[in-house]
Amino acid sequence: MATAFRRKGSRVVGRMDTQEREVVISLFEQTRELVGGEDHVSSGDPLQDLIGGWDRAPIDPEEVASRDPALQRLLPPASRDDDQLAGDFRAMTEDNLRRQKATRLSTAIAAFGGEPGGAVGVDLERGGEKIEMDLGQAQAVMMALSDVRLVLGERLGLRTDEDSEELHAMLEAAEELEDPRMLLAAYYDFMTWLQESVTIAVMA
């Protein structure tokens, strides 16, 4: 069972069992696939990546409107009142935003042992698997968790704090998680707790 992350010097350390860790990695991977940032090659210079978008053709509004609603939540319009402004800003910044999100999600996957570069080991004394991150990784994990929660929230139809509170109450009252919505709710609840845990540890 997962334990809260703690700050230990310049490191952030937590524990969770294998199944929990694999669920987290899977959600990171699914969100990264949705973002699709790996298809948008970076120049290696963030400023150049941004400037490079200035002369790009506008993205087809119909293509944007037909996107998965969860992707629309991840890549929202800069303006809901000015379509021209929103389109110009999207053409200029979307590729870079996709890359940033995909990079953070890849960092999070590696930190949880899903790809080379993670620091995961079995803790025989206290049980579970130990996950250890530097502050840069932990900050990337915080933002990656936020993106995962946006996706899950969209799948669950969450729009307000009241929606989230109602879902949490339903989850607590549920006797089993066979209902797909309840399973998604459990994932959302766990990722919310995990993000809070990592955030508190980073800010400590």
Fold and architecture overview:
This protein is an alpha+beta fold. The chain has one domain (about 5-204). Helix content is about 60%, strand content about 10%. The protein contains 8 helices and 4 strands; from the N terminus they run ββαααααββααα. The chain has helices at about 20-35, 45-50, 60-65, 70-75, 85-110, 135-155, 160-175, 180-204, and strands spanning about 5-10, 10-15, 120, 130-135. The chain has a 4-stranded antiparallel beta sheet with strand order 1-2-4-3. Helix 1 packs antiparallel against helix 5 (about 85-110) and helix 6 packs antiparallel against helix 8 (about 180-204). It is globular. The two termini are about 25 Å apart.
